[in-house]
Amino acid sequence: MIIDSNKIDTHNEILIQSHANKLVFLASEIGETENIVQKLIDFQIAIPSWALGTGGTRFGRFAGGGEPRSLEEKIEDVGLLHALNNASGAISLHIPWDIPTDYNAIKSLAAQHNLKFDAVNSNTFQDQANQEHSYKFGSLQNVNKAVRKQAVAHNIEVIQQGIALGSESLTVWLADGSSFPGQLNFRKAYQNTLESLEEIYAALPSNWKLFLEYKNAEPNFYSTTVADWGQSYSYVKKLGDKAKTLVDLGHHLPNANIEQIVSLLLMEDKLGGFHFNDSKYGDDDLTAGSLKPYQLFLIFNELVEGMDARGMNHAKDLGWMIDASHNIKDPLEDLLQSVEAIMIAYAQALLVDRKALEIAQNENDVVRAQEILQNAFRTDVRALVAEARLRSGAALNPVGLYRDLAVRNGLIAERGLKTMATGL
Ligand code: PSV
Ligand code: MN
Ligand code: MN
């Protein structure tokens, strides 16, 4: 299914007057808007291939129908999102959930939808049917060298697949850890993991990055071998310049100050990228910004400040990805909402009066500092995000148009009601 650009134009014509009024009002409040709109046009957020179907929980799964049955259909789904918002111009694959059979055909399908291949993700947290050794007691950390070798070989294989697709980064997330005290010698687990990561790192092309994602718990509930940003930092620091830490917002202990983590990783040149989502209890993988939009804004505030301080390109120098799961919402609608929330947080962060904030900080004017941040956060920037979409041929109201065009029904008609996307 492809969304005709005429349908987008017709949709925009209906909404244009109301949009223009909002934009004029906003411009009168904040002044210069061009710079922000251009940055929003440039900003793209990769969609994970595993988030296009209904995830479910270990208690059950309530499929919505019309889910992508193949890598081709996953690319088509991301293409639909990108046509609607022009902000989802990349797909992140998870191997072996996604294995291209014909690389050129997959590349040209992605190009037809204006999509790039973002980070490729390895999977050593599940056993595959044809696999010799089990990952039950870990992969890169395993006490058994043969298991480690198998896991290293898988990661190198994923790099090869990524090269064939034009991807430029590998994300490693390890389920490795222990479930009970005494199960693991922490130091040896660390050393085995480091040694394995070094072998993977050595296989990276020169223009590639390795993102090491941390997670405080789950599936192991006593210890995780890359449990927090400090542990990830310790590995990536030893690996070299191409290795960076990946921050998944749902992978922290409750109340962690993620914005401070982001600021310091950026300062150390060790922040690689993000997995955006939202959560209340753990790795809930809910829609970005659905629970803690202020936290999302504060994270972007540090990103903008830190990236500008280092002269970095907002759109290109970090990996921006969503990592979400959908239990009760239509995955495509949910992803549109996540992208919108991320764009809003980014636009609000761009509004922060940096000079005034610096003065307030230097004068220890705590009240003024809070006013500056909250003025930006409480500004309704949705018209700026919509303007970025309008200028790039996307829809003023992506979720609205998705519903008006009954896209899900179209996908069900094409693919059937009982389809099951691979992934979580
Ligand atoms: C683990 O919880 C994680 O966040 C990692 O990014 C995985 O690759 C992804 O979820 C999908 O399982
Ligand atoms: Mn993740
Ligand atoms: Mn996760």
TrEMBL record:
Gene3D superfamilies membership: Divalent-metal-dependent TIM barrel enzymes
GO molecular function: L-rhamnose isomerase activity
InterPro entries named among the record's database cross-references: L-rhamnose_isomerase (IPR050337), Xyl_isomerase-like_sf (IPR036237), Xyl_isomerase-like_TIM-brl (IPR013022)
Domain of life of the organism encoding this protein: Bacteria
Domain Xylose isomerase-like TIM barrel: 101-285
Species this protein is from: Flavobacterium granuli
Coiled-coil ranges per UniProt: none
SUPFAM superfamilies per UniProt: Xylose isomerase-like
Tagged with keyword Cytoplasm: no
Protein's name in the database: L-rhamnose isomerase/sugar isomerase
